[in-house]
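Entry:
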Amino acid sequence: MDLRPAVDEYLTYLAVDRARSPQTLRAYTTDLERALAYWESLRTSPERVDDLSKDLVRAYQRHLGQCRLALSSRARRLQALRGFLRYSLREGWMAEDLAAHIDIPRISAPLPKPLTTDDARTLLAYEGGHSEASLRDRALVHFLLSTGCRISEALGVDRSDLNPDGRLVVKGKGSKERVVHLTPGAVDAVRAYLDARHDREAALFLNYDHHSQSVGDRRLTASGARHIVSGLRRGSGVEGLKSPHVLRHTTATELLTITGNVRLVQEVLGHSNLNTMQGYTKVVDRARSAAYRELSRRLEAQAPPRELD
């Protein structure tokens, strides 16, 4: 099979069979295009998938190493190529497992930076006004903190999805569905927002800028949510609120602190791989260690001096 049609088929597989997000598809498309462009620049360039060889794969890895890329960028490009090569082997387009010759740099993932419990409480208590947009902002914060949803999951919710008991089904990565629950406070915040609305829009969270109203698509976008969070950070004084994803980190850390049940938190967040929970466990372990150090300091400071016999 020719290389470029093979890459196109692989990208279609990711979009249809694996339901990858548009962002992931764009990244894979760009990364694989760069690999093809490199091979096409060679004196003898491969035209078919079975023209690829271990030497060509290793030559591309050396090329990336000379490009002064960030380690994360290099790792992402190699992951895209490895996925394509594995797919090609499975489809019978090549006889040798070339993916086995790809060495992806190990990257230590940064630890999540959740809000402190006090900051989360401050944010939940912050009102910011009584306009429809302000009620939406408050409802969005309550929704994200109580469910631990990704912002994309929250923005895909329709108001018809809500049950009176605060339970609803959200669609996560790979179109996987899971049940999440709103806390009583979140239910109240969402109801207050919906009671103030007089539209017939299906979306739970709406945009209120002039552009969205003029084009007729009022569902809140990810960029709109980031703008909301920026305003809430300034208004509430909670400096740790850098993005909507911080609220997901906060929910995960609070739940893990309360329950100590990694598997439960994994199910709440919709993570398919338990390894993704390691960052949260490290955050909780650090907080626990700090608490014990503080306990030790307090006890030792207050302990009466021992009398010598």
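The two ends are 90 Å apart (CA to CA).
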